[in-house]
């Protein structure tokens, strides 16, 4: 999130109005908006206020609270959440995934005669991260990929981001640094940009999901959870409650990957620290 100030032609927000919307955002999405984010809130919500002809942020807040369909809250999530990402972001994670996580997963599942590799990308945004994970799996397994059930679950709270992920078309800036052979193998150039190949897209199940849900509706635990660059917007209690819920839905020995700008307080979580931004559930 940026901190760009609101321009002079934008509707003014009072301290009370900001605090009301801030508390609502925290309640629904766990995002802690500081006073420094006031300009961001004003800027990002202007389009909604103008489109729906609200005369004040108070009117808008009252609408958010009264809307039983939850469409207004969904629209708020689309505007407030940040979805900037790119392919192979924080490459160290993908290197570690190939060198350590995948070999462990394969050995565990072979020992249990189970080919169902369970991976959850918990902050899918516009699709770059889950599609990168699938590309990594395809490259790792090669022709043996067909013998594994490698499809992954990718979730996000923003419907706008999920629509973009489902479309799977990206401009060149999202592929900067990606080797040309990988681009040629897994993307198709068209007039709108680079479209992810169907063999990648079909391996990702996209679902809307709010990480603030106190119950995670998953029947089976995951081998690896990617939850990167979303908890920087959470306060400490929200963050630790989330990763502790994830811990319960991870197999023994399974991994949690978080953003490199994020850390977990080791005295407040059962996760074992492995290296920066990598944690493990002890076997």
Topology:
Blueprint: H1 15-29, H2 38-51, H3 57-66, H4 71-80, H5 91-111, E1 119-121, H6 128-141, E2 152-156, H7 159-167, E3 169-170, H8 180-186, E4 187-190, E5 193-196, H9 198-201, E6 204-208, E7 222-227, H10 236-248, E8 250-258, E9 272-275, E10 278-280
Parallel strand pairs: 1-2, 1-7, 2-6, 7-8
Antiparallel strand pairs: 3-5, 4-5, 8-10, 9-10
Helix pairs in contact: 2-4
Bulk shape:
globular
Order of helices and strands: HHHHHEHEHEHEEHEEHEEE
| Average pLDDT | 90
Task: Find the structural class using helix and strand composition.
Answer: alpha/beta
Low-confidence regions: 1-8
Number of contiguous helices:
10
Beta-strand percent range = 15-25%
CATH class of the largest domain: Alpha Beta
CATH superfamily of the largest domain, by name, is Vaccinia Virus protein VP39
- Order of adjacent strands in the largest pleated sheet: 6-2-1-7-8-10-9
Briefly summarize what is shown.
The chain is of the alpha/beta class.
Q: Could you list some keywords that capture this structure?
A:
41% helix, 10 helices, single chain, Rossmann fold, disordered N terminus, 2 domains, three-stranded antiparallel β-sheet, 283 residues, Chemotaxis Receptor Methyltransferase Cher, domain 1, seven-stranded mixed β-sheet, alpha/beta, 10 strands
């Amino acid at each position: 999130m940026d901190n760009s100030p609101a321009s002079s032609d934008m509707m003014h927000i009072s301290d009370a109005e900001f605090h009301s919307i801030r508390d609502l955002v925290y309640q629904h999405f766990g995002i802690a908006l500081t006073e420094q984010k006031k300009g961001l809130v004003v800027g990002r919500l202007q389009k909604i206020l103008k489109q729906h002809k609200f005369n004040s942020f108070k009117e808008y807040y009252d609408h958010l609270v009264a809307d039983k369909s939850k469409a207004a809250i969904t629209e708020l999530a689309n505007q407030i959440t940040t979805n900037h990402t790119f392919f192979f972001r924080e490459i160290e994670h993908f290197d570690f995934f190939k060198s350590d996580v995948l070999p462990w997963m394969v050995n565990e599942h072979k020992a249990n005669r189970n080919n169902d590799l369970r991976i959850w990308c918990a902050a899918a945004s516009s699709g770059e991260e889950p599609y990168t994970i699938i590309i990594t799996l395809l490259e790792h397994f090669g022709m043996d990929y067909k013998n594994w059930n490698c499809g992954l679950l990718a979730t996000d709270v923003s419907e706008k981001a999920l629509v973009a992920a489902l479309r799977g078309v990206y401009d060149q800036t999202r592929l900067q640094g990606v080797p040309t052979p990988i681009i040629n193998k897994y993307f198709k150039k068209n007039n709108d940009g680079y479209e992810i190949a169907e063999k990648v897209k079909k391996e990702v199940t996209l679902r809307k999901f709010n990480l603030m849900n106190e119950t995670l509706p998953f029947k089976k635990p995951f081998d690896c959870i990617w939850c990167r660059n979303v908890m920087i917007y959470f306060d400490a209690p929200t963050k630790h409650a989330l990763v502790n819920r994830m811990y319960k839905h991870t197999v023994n020995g399974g991994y949690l990957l978080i953003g490199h700008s994020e850390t977990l307080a080791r005295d407040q979580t059962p996760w074992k620290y492995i290296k920066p931004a990598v944690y493990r559930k002890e076997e």
